[in-house]
Amino acid sequence: MMGHTGVALALVVALFCPALAHRAIGERSKCVSSSRTIYDTPFNFTMLNGTTVPLSKFRGEIHITINATYLSTHGANWQYPLFNALQELEGVTVLGFPCNQFGLQEPGANSEILKILEHVRPGGGFQPNFPMFEKLEVNGENAHPLFKFLKDQCNVVTSQFAPKARLFYEPIQPNDIEWNFHKFLVDQEGRARRRYHHNTPPDAAIVRKDIRFLQNN
Question: What are the phi and psi torsion angles at 83 (to 5°)?
């Protein structure tokens, strides 16, 4: 979807944990100034509806790529409708990547995820208006190269992680995504520009400010 400036925005997300809830809303970090982009490697991803799309399809858009989950026992599913609204109101493209590495909060099969979002969490007939892809890993030895790249390009936003018993990957590294709904902001050229703590709302003023900066520059 395109907004009033004719561009879309990409931000990468992961989800919510009470042990980390005290972190300040709007906490973010800058990414390195680099010519490297997410399009340098020809990634292809399969959506939950079975359609395979190249990541390059989103070139020229600002996008929010999210590492999301439906089994949030502590209320983070409120972020889903905000991503829908952000895409519609700010002209961003949201890319959703389910992940089961944090508290095993995404245990279902790929074929079950959209139905669970619609009928259970957040429920109420919810349907994401953004692409949701098949599950992948964002941390550890099997982390997808897209997420390895994004983490390498951006400074960490926190040094505090959930208890190790709730992290289902090895090894644990300082630049890891700390929980679900962690977010990365990627510009129109595919360069990582900002990284946000998982409890920063998608519609936070600082997120919208960063989006509009990219739209106008």
Answer: -65, -40
pLDDT in tens, 149-207: 999 999 998 888 889 999 999 999 999 999 999 999 999 999 999 999 988 999 899 99
CA distance 77 to 17: 12
Tens of pLDDT, residues 95-107: 999 999 999 988 8
C-alpha span between 95 and 202 (Å, rounded): 13
What total of structural domains would you count in the chain? 1
Give CA–CA dist 59/104, Å, rounded.
Answer: 32
- 67-78 average pLDDT score: 62
- For tokens 């953004």, the residue is 130
Label residue 93 exposed, middle or buried (CB < 10 Å: 0-12, 13-18, 19+).
Answer: buried
**What CATH number should be reported for the domain holding residue 89?**
3.40.30.10
Q: Decide if 5 is inside a domain.
A: no
Tell me which residue range forms the domain holding 103: 10-216
User: What b/e string do you get for 30-66 counting C-beta neighbours within 10 Å, with b at 16 or more?
Assistant: ebeeeeebbbeeeeebebbeeeeeebeebebbbbbbb
**Rounded Cα–Cα distance for residues 116 and 79 (Å):** 15
Is the residue at 2 inside a domain? no
Residue 4 lies in a domain: no
Read off the pLDDT of residues 8-39 as tens digits, 9 standing for 90 and up: 445 555 433 334 444 444 588 999 988 999 99
pLDDT range class, residue 116, cuts 50, 70, 90: confident
